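note to self: dont lose this again. the chain is below, predicted strucutre after it. 106 aa total, dont forget to put it in the shared folder this time
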Amino acid sequence: MKNQIDMLIELQEMDSTENSSNAKKSNNGKNTDQKLRDKLKSAVTPHVFTLYEKLYRAREGQALAKIEDGVCGGCHVVLPTKELPFVAEAKNIVQCWNCQRILYTL
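---
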């Protein structure tokens, strides 16, 4: 699952950069970006990608949240200590109980 989280982080960074950038791209640049996005999309399960897209839209471009000092980086709520090891192991997708963002650690 860690690999899927890494792909989602990269996808979120790419989507955020694309949405915030007003710079014009050549058609070749768009094709390259779409190919990379398709590659990232294919690296995660359909269920996880659907969840990512839903959260990305609902949470204004922040579908994932990094945990720092036991706190969700999205909504800043203190997370239950018993959940932190599950996020670190990254065997399954773990969502914040408050904002529902997908949690990760580096």
